[in-house]
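B., you asked whether I could sanity-check this one before it goes into the benchmark set. Here's the sequence:
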Amino acid sequence: MKIIIIVVLAIIVGLVIIGGGLGTFVSYVGEGTEKIKQNEKLQDIKEQISTTINSEIEKSDIVIKSISESKNKCDPSYPDVCISPYPPGLDCGEISYSNFRVIGSDPHEFDKDGNGIGCEK
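And here's what the prediction gave me:
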């Protein structure tokens, strides 16, 4: 802080000696004050952007976690639809899907004829 005061005093003395006078000094101070205000505004904008970005990252992390959790609740034998794992056993009348791909073990036995299509209509 003392350095700033000394620098400002040196500028004032220099301007008076050179002949610019106090009016020139006030002009310089005004420009400096305006730049400080602009820098403060830029800092505020940077903080707002940072806050917004962090908020969006948190939201996307929640969505990713939710998707990951929901995939764990879906049986991998039915990759195109989400059907809960066995048990309990389900039949085609208890689900809203039809004509979906069946791979692997088919624990619910949706693909009775073994052609890879579940709950055919």
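One thing to flag: Residues 1-72 form one domain. Otherwise nothing jumped out at me.
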